Amino acid sequence: MNTSLKNAEQLKLNHGYAMASLADEDVQVDVDVVGQNDPVQYSEQYLSEIIEARVRQIFDRIQDKLKAIHAPELPGGVVLIGGVAALPGVKELAEQYFTGNIKVNVPEQMGIRHPRYAVSLALGMYENQLSDIDRLIKQTVQRIDTIKSPHEEKDKLLISHVNNGLKNLINYNVHSEKHSSNQLLKSQRQRRKSKMA
To answer: What's the whole-model pTM score?
Structure first.
């Protein structure tokens, strides 16, 4: 539709359905299109067809990941969170992909009663319940990239030697090819001269 991400998000939240069959084809929605002064009208059903295709892609990927770990039937069911989980029809669409109990999580805290806040709330609650030891382990794991290996200097030196060796080999081959080409030209010239004489 060639609209901005901000507009696309608003269209999804205000006019979107996870299942296009639930949308009304007679309802027209104005869409600000990049590069045009006037908005373009699309049916609510057309918007929902685009949204449904993306949601199906997400569910397909999740289903593939679950199959890869041999867990297509989760004992606890599936909990849908995030902004897409608020779309009408998302639970019904999820039932086509997953078995067991399927639930849309809406936080109960005042001011954040929307599925899009579920991840932030869960991460905050998780961080809050960590013990001091858990936090120390988490910080250590996060800083693992900054810890230097005792072999790091040796590895760098080895890589440097390999790179220099490759450069020398390339230079030798280029020089050899030039030398061979020059030798070939000289011998061709000598043959021509001898034929003329």
So the answer is: 0.62
